[in-house]
Design a protein that fits this description.
- The complex is a heterodimer of chains A (275) and B (478).
- Chain A is mainly alpha-helical and 275 residues long.
- Chain A has 11 helices and no strands.
- In chain A, helix 1 packs parallel to helix 11 and helix 2 packs antiparallel against helix 11.
- Chain A is elongated and about 90 Å long.
- The radius of gyration of chain B is 46 Å and the shape is elongated.
- The chains are: A mainly alpha (275), B mainly alpha (478).
Chain lengths: 275, 478
């Protein structure tokens, strides 16, 4: 628990100290005063461009997470153990079967070979490809597909698919909260600077003879402070969300994988939201 | 003493009211009988067409209301008069006063009242009809939107079926007809066949005039036939085994789950795309206003506009993430290429481009692009490069990139949040972070020394703060 909180503190520090990238996503600003109606196509094109830039980074992050998740997933471990040794039920006392199953599960991370397909497609090269039989081959000699039927493969693939979906959706939620936490922190800092400038301007307008009390009771001061408080509350909310979703992701992959992901690609992937 | 007096008074009043009601009830019942006999309903309906149908003619107020003097003589006029007279006489004086008042009122404004009543009734009916037509039009409009959804979902599901091997496998196993699937015969038929073959074998062996070799041959052939009948020699491969019920249920669950996920994420995708478009255009406007206020050195206004801009920006980020999430899930199922060819993007985009064509100049390259199939064209289109890092052009004259659909003439906007955002009004002196700076420490710089140049462009949409409304001393205005 303390380790997780330490990690979260680290992440928070990373978020706070990161430089603001100069990328401008929304370069559109028309001289017209009214809101230009953005079309769906425009928005989707912008999203496409944005996605293309981050595709490699996301694949890296998801590979890290998936390797950790597939080894920890109990349904997949069970399925691999059963499939690798179909006669294990009849001879439960066989010592070699347990060792074999363990070595098979160690190789289950080979299922991570499908992470490139995780973003752009389904993981289901399993059925037609050699991935599963490679994973089930223990010592490179025993062909493993003897007892594995098509239905077994389909059901195992269903498990893999569900795990990937779960991991992907938790990752996406994590990414959302992480990006929003970072952006809200940026917003809060910018709003703080604006607040300083506004207060300075207000006190300048009030004149040098006015007291501090008069400044604080001024309606404009109060309005500015209320606006700043709103932004600060938003930041607190998003940071809380981020911690919650980080915990959810860690339940699936373990804290080490999330930590490694943050260390390797976190800054580039999550902190590109310009203001 | 007072209480007993009051009680007596109350009981007396009660008795009196009981008597009065008894005297009233008798003639009213009489009147009801008579109206039923004379059938007053059509006449009253002719006069007051707005009456609800459940209202009976025996209502004494209704009977007292029609003026019997000014209306043309109807065949039942005398009875009506007598009825109203009877009612008014029998009831106490106040009700006769009411009857007379009613009569005088209808005498004075009989025609306009009637006309107004019928008019309002007609108006009500017309309004009702219009409302129904409106709702019908709205329903038709909503139904006209539906085919896009259905079309897109069909496209996506077809693509999923083609791309996704497990779904293909499951659907194939679930929809295979019985004669194409693994052979299964009835136990009864096979046993009967077996018994017939064995009987025939025995009969053949019992035929006279045979030797041992013939019996052996017959037994072997019979055994072979019975093996064929009971399929004992069929290959028993585990992979060729037919699906059990549980496995079929599992596969059906898998397919149904994928279908549901596809539908949900498609609807999410659609909704969040339109929401993102709204949020983004809003935040663009707010950002402009924020920048303009900053350039005007209106720090108070800039703070307020900036906070609303930041909130809009966060909302926009949220919508963007929702769009990305649903898009990713859709891509995993149906493939990345199919999303840009979905039908729902075409309709509003075409409408919007038609609407905006009058406002903004459309570049020929953008107008030449087909809007129905935007997939590769949009990817190759020279967009405003939202995600990429674009250094601002070094020349003083800004290059105007062309938006893909030619909707808005875009200018490169320098990023707002920079290191020079800080208040230059304090002359570089950082304010204490307690949000309450001491007034005396603020250096009173003249307004000319402030950083930034004023914007020559008029900004009608940025509302200037009316300081007079906020009770600021006039001399302090910059």
């Amino acid at each position: 628990m303390s380790r997780r909180s330490l990690l979260l503190c680290q992440l928070t520090l990373i978020g706070a100290l990161a430089l603001l990238p100069v990328s401008v996503w929304a370069a559109a600003s028309s001289p017209a005063a009214s809101a230009p109606e953005m079309t769906l196509q425009q928005v989707l094109t912008q999203i496409q461009t944005q996605k293309q830039d981050q595709l490699a980074l996301e694949q890296e992050a998801l590979t890290l997470l998936w390797r950790a998740a597939v080894v920890r997933s109990s349904p997949i471990r069970l399925a691999l153990e059963k499939l690798s040794n179909p006669v294990a039920e009849s001879t439960p006392t066989d010592k070699s079967s347990g060792a074999k199953a363990r070595s098979v599960v160690k190789q289950a991370a080979q299922l991570g070979a499908v992470t490139s397909a995780m973003l752009t497609g389904s993981p289901l090269g399993l059925v037609t490809g050699q991935i599963l039989s490679d994973a089930l081959t223990v010592d490179g000699q025993t062909p493993a597909r003897i007892g594995v039927s098509d239905v077994d493969l389909a059901l195992l693939t269903k498990e893999v698919e569900q795990l990937q979906h779960q991991l992907l959706s938790r990752y996406l939620v994590y990414r959302k909260s992480r990006r929003l936490a970072y952006a809200s922190r940026q917003s809060r800092e910018a709003a703080f600077k604006d607040l300083q400038a506004g207060v300075a301007r207000l006190s300048f307008q009030l004149g040098p003879s006015s007291s501090k009390d008069a400044l604080e009771k001024h309606p404009l001061f109060q309005v500015m402070q209320a606006q700043y408080d709103q932004i600060a509350q938003l930041e607190q909310y998003y940071v809380r969300q981020w911690r919650q979703h980080a915990e959810a992701l860690m339940l699936l992959t373990g804290p080490e994988a999330v930590e490694a992901m943050e260390r390797q690609v976190g800054t580039q992937l999550f902190e590109n939201a310009s203001l | 003493m007072m209480a007993t007096h009051q009680n007596r008074l109350l009981s007396g009043l009660l008795l009196l009211s009981l008597l009065a009601s008894a005297t009233v009830a008798q003639p009213l019942a009489h009147a009801r009988k008579q109206t039923h006999n004379t059938a007053q309903a059509p006449d009253i309906r002719k006069q007051y067409p707005f009456l609800p149908p459940e209202m009976t003619v025996s209502d004494p107020q209704t009977l007292a209301a029609p003026p019997s003097e000014d209306t043309p003589p109807a065949p039942t006029e005398g009875e009506v008069i007598s009825l109203s007279q009877q009612g008014s006489q029998a009831v106490s004086g106040s009700s006769s006063v009411v009857a007379r008042l009613n009569a005088s009122l209808t005498q004075d404004s009989a025609l306009p009242d009637k006309v107004a009543a019928t008019k309002s009734f007609q108006e009500l009916a017309a309004a009702h009809m219009a409302k129904q037509q409106d709702s019908k039009a709205a329903r038709e409009k909503a139904e006209a939107l539906d085919p896009t959804v259905e079309q897109d979902l069909n496209t996506l599901w077809r693509e999923t079926l083609v791309r996704n091997p497990v779904v293909r496998f499951s659907v194939g196993h679930l929809t295979t007809p019985a004669d194409l699937g693994p052979k299964r015969s009835s136990l009864f038929v096979s046993k009967t066949l077996n018994a017939l073959i064995q009987g025939a074998t025995l009969g053949a062996m019992m035929l006279p005039g045979g030797g041992v070799y013939r019996d052996m041959t017959v037994a072997t052939v019979g055994q072979a036939f019975s093996n064929l009948a009971t399929r004992k020699l069929a290959p028993q491969h585990p992979a060729a085994r037919p699906l059990s019920q549980t496995e079929q249920i599992q596969l059906a669950q898998l397919v149904d789950g994928l279908k549901l996920r596809l539908t949900e994420s498609y609807l999410d995708y659609r909704n969040s795309a339109s929401q993102l478009a709204r949020c983004r255009s809003q935040s663009v406007v707010l950002r402009q206003q924020y920048q303009a206020a900053k350039e005007k050195n209106d720090a108070v206004m800039a703070m307020m506009l900036g906070s609303s801009y930041h909130q809009a920006r966060l909302k926009e980020l949220e919508a963007e993430e929702a769009l990305l999430t649903s898009e990713k899930i859709l891509e995993r199922l149906a493939g990345p290429g199919i999303l840009s060819t979905l039908a729902f993007q075409g309709v509003p985009a075409a409408k919007a481009s038609q609407a905006m064509a009058t406002k903004a100049p459309v570049s020929p390259a953008a107008s030449a692009k087909p809007s129905t199939h935007p997939g590769p064209a949009l990817l190759a289109a020279p967009s405003a490069s939202p995600g990429k890092v674009t250094p601002p052009p070094p020349s003083t004259k800004p290059v105007q990139p062309v938006a893909p659909m030619g909707v808005a003439v875009v200018q490169p906007v320098k990023p707002i949040v920079q290191t020079d955002v800080g208040p230059s009004i304090t002359g570089g002196a950082a304010l204490p972070p307690s949000l309450k700076p001491a007034v005396t420490t603020v250096a009173l710089q003249p307004a000319k020394a402030l950083k930034g140049t004023p914007d020559p462009r008029p900004l009608p949409d940025v509302p200037a703060v009316d300081y007079a409304l906020l009770e600021l001393p006039q001399g302090a205005r910059p």
